[in-house]
């Protein structure tokens, strides 16, 4: 193996030795990740069994898509897995931002206030909310107000939430994962505490969770802790690396229906919409998701541990509890960030020969560099890394359909960064 890694990927003896030490060091955490995967796999399997998923559900529909048994079963299976009343899982929810936007537009009306209680939401949501540069068509354009409670040293600021929420507060937005931030991702337990606190002030406030990257990382989900609506992308965790596009919304039935009104149109809601060939992928992907999430969590853990050993600050740290698939590494210079992403790209099954470069990605303020050599374009449940080009030059890596292949990319990234000196 060493010979192959050296010949094909230029991995030095030093990095190989380091990697072997790290693999031994992280054994207790990988065992824990496997345990959560097993629990979630049984949960998913049971939902398939309870809803008697059969070959017929794998087929799609055309035209209006009336009585699409697969589509209806997928919603029911998702709802059960997430401990929710109902779900809207569609290939034509184009990404995570779209899924979250559906939740916001579903519940917020002119004069209402949305409060983000976990600081600045994910970059692409700024345009949706209206704090970005476009404005037109945003929630603000429709007369929805926005307030934000920043985290205090990475912690939820309960006093500030208390003083910010008022009688116009209709909904609260909670972001589970760190996004492009340097803070611990929230656990579902912590999300439950926030929800109880907010609904203790006013129990009618709708709690919406941006669940991107969080699915199946823990044995529970935000909906198990009282979230009214949660949303995510199918080219991240719940698509299991199989779904080629899509998003989901799940939670309280009446709110899911409102999200469907927004996606489709009022009156038609969830009950119309051809699925073409998507049902098979969505079901197959959900079935694979607990396992694939575990593979990518092990990759994140391995990556964090290697870079900590190399002297970099990492978040989360190797021994920390993990509630999503993200590993952040503070690399400290543009060169190292670029070289890191090149290494990750080198270990990808697709486009490994391509050199990623920083570019002006739509919806983002700074230039972003992305390493993504994926079967599904941009899928971040597959091995990938991205970094906004700004100090302190943090790279975020995530994904990996198999730990053994992600391992190669991570070694290449480590080798590249070490060569920077
Ligand atoms: C990925 C992500 C989103 C949505 O991003 P898309 O690229 O639109 O799928 C939102 N929030 C967080 C925390 C994310 O990681």
List keywords for this structure.
seven-stranded mixed beta sheet, five-stranded antiparallel beta sheet, 2 domains, 421 residues, Aspartate Aminotransferase, domain 1, globular, binds pyridoxal-5'-phosphate, alpha/beta, 12 strands, Aspartate Aminotransferase, domain 2
Task: Provide structural commentary.
The chain has helices spanning 2-9, 13-25, 27-50, 55-58, 69-81, 96-107, 125-129, 158-164, 188-201, 253-263, 278-309, 334-346, 403-420; strands spanning 86-90, 113-116, 145-148, 169-175, 206-210, 229-233, 247-251, 313-315, 327-330, 368-372, 384-388, 394-398. The protein folds into two domains: 2-41 and 288-419, Methioning gamme-lyase, C-terminal domain (Aspartate Aminotransferase, domain 1, Alpha-Beta Complex), CATH 3.90.1150; 43-286, Type I PLP-dependent aspartate aminotransferase-like (Major domain) (Aspartate Aminotransferase, domain 2), CATH 3.40.640. A hairpin with a 5-residue loop joins strand 11 and strand 12 (394-398). Strands 1-7-6-5-4-2-3 form a seven-stranded mixed beta sheet, with helices on both faces. A five-stranded antiparallel beta sheet has the order 8-9-12-11-10, with helices on one face. The protein has 421 residues and is of the alpha/beta class. The structure holds pyridoxal-5'-phosphate (PLP). Pyridoxal-5'-phosphate binds at residues 95-97, 122, 124, 175, 177, 179, 210, 212-213, 233.
């Amino acid at each position: 193996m060493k010979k192959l890694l050296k010949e094909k990927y230029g991995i030095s003896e030093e990095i190989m030795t380091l990697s072997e030490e790290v693999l031994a060091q992280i054994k207790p955490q990988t065992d824990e990740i496997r345990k959560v995967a097993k629990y979630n796999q049984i949960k998913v399997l049971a939902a398939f069994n309870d809803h008697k998923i059969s070959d017929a559900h794998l087929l799609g529909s055309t035209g209006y898509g009336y009585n699409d048994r697969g589509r209806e079963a997928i919603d029911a299976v998702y709802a059960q897995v997430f401990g929710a009343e109902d779900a809207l899982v569609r290939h034509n929810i184009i990404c995570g931002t779209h899924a979250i936007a559906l939740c916001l537009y579903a519940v917020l009306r002119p004069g209402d206030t949305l409060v983000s209680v976990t600081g600045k939401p994910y970059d692409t949501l700024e345009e949706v909310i209206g704090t970005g540069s476009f404005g037109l068509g945003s929630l603000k354009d429709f007369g929805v107000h926005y307030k934000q409670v920043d985290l205090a040293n990475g912690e939820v600021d309960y006093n500030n939430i208390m003083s910010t929420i008022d009688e116009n507060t209709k909904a609260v937005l909670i972001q589970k994962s760190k996004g492009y931030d340097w803070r611990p991702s929230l656990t579902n337990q912590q999300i439950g505490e926030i929800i109880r606190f907010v609904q203790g002030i006013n129990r009618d406030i709708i709690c919406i969770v941006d669940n991107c990257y969080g699915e199946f990382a823990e044995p529970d989900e935000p909906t198990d802790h009282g979230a009214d609506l949660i949303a995510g992308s199918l080219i991240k965790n719940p698509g299991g690396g199989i779904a080629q596009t899509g998003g989901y919304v799940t939670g309280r039935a009446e709110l899911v229906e409102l999200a469907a009104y927004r996606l489709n149109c009022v009156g038609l809601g969830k009950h119309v919409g051809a699925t073409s060939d998507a049902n098979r992928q969505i079901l197959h992907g959900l079935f694979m998701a607990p396992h694939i999430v575990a593979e990518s969590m092990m990759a994140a853990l391995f990556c964090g541990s290697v870079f900590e050993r190399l002297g970099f600050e990492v978040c989360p740290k190797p021994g920390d509890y993990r509630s999503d698939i993200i590993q952040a590494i503070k690399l400290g210079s543009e060169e190292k960030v670029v070289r890191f992403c090149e290494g990750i790209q080198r270990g990808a099954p697709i486009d490994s020969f391509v050199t990623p470069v920083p570019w002006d990605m739509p919806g983002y303020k700074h230039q972003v560099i992305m390493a993504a050599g994926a079967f599904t374009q941009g899928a971040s449940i597959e091995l990938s890394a991205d970094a906004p080009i700004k100090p302190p030059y943090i790279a975020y890596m995530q994904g990996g359909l198999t730990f053994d292949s992600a391992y190669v990319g991570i070694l290449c990234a480590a080798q590249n960064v070490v060569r920077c000196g």
